[in-house]
Amino acid sequence: MENILDIAKRVLKIEADAILALTDKLNSNFERAVEVIYGSKGRVVVTGMGKSGLVGKKIAATLASTGTPAFFLHPAEAIHGDIGMVTADDVIIAISNSGETEELIGIIPFLKRFNVSLISMTGNPNSTLSKAADITLDVSVKEEACSLGIVPTASTTATLAMGDAIAVALLMKRGYKEEDFAFFHPGGSLGKKLFIKVKDLMHTGDALPLVSPHKSMTKAVMEISSKRLGVAIVVDSDKKILGVITDGDLRRGIEKWGKAVFDMKAGEVMTKNPKTISEDELAAKALSIMESKSITSLAVPDSDGKAKGIIHLHDILRKGIV
């Protein structure tokens, strides 16, 4: 009997070979399928039963997240009213390895009444489903990965890969960009990087740690401590940014002047011309600046150079922007 690792290696090889074999089955039908979907004014309706249905759900999700409106329609639910979700502008992708799945074949006449384009993905190009389809994509495999040769394994993997090929071809044809992907994934890390701006995270108003250059360092330390951002922005009487005082500035001041630093003025200890960032910049850019300069916060000036906000490293990381 094969050991566990040998079984796993055999399964992976069979499934990998099944996917590679699809390249020889690609022909003008694939190009036609992509063109039909691309030219559609409606959505892609993916349907299939059992394991094919589960694969279909993933294909529909991938299409939808890459700029092609799509949803999954369960064949059994379709005959009980859900077929009403289909419109004449839609394109159908019907998935069945055998091409003879009863529930799927049963809804084809009803789908045809909408005069929609029907694309079949099947392992049997001579099946009822294939003959009813306008375009057939051959996803047949030499063998399943299970020892019985009957459990959908290599066949479902091949079908899934063909669905990915369609989605990526459409993605490229539409000129889909990273920003577009982020638009459909606003909750993901990419969406956060491309949509969350400095103004969405910065501290403003009473939360701003502000201090006059004429105030003592004792007052500056109190301001730093009370606002809990590890920094104070030094501003003039018009709130224009002159510099910043950080925890690091205080430590270096103590090393240089000892206790006398607390009797000095904030303007004498501050770091002049601090790094700032516009409120309209992406928070991801603020993070990049902080990392490159080894700092933990950036002052945010308005158009006149007056202190409007401050963004801290912790605010960015807490939002999941990495």
Account of the protein in words:
With 322 residues, this protein is of the alpha/beta class. It has helices at 4-21, 28-39, 50-65, 75-78, 102-112, 128-132, 154-173, 178-183, 189-195, 198-201, 217-227, 247-257, 266-269, 283-293, 313-318; strands spanning 44-48, 70-73, 91-96, 117-122, 135-138, 210-211, 231-235, 241-246, 271-272, 297-301, 307-312. The strands form three sheets. The protein has a five-stranded parallel β-sheet, with helices on both faces. It has a four-stranded mixed β-sheet with strand order 6-7-8-9. α1 packs across α7, α2 (28-39) packs across α7 (154-173) and α3 (50-65) packs parallel to α7 (154-173). The relative contact order is 0.10.
Sum up the structure in keywords.
single chain; 322 residues; alpha/beta; Rossmann fold; CBS-domain; 2 domains; five-stranded parallel sheet; 15 helices; 45% helix
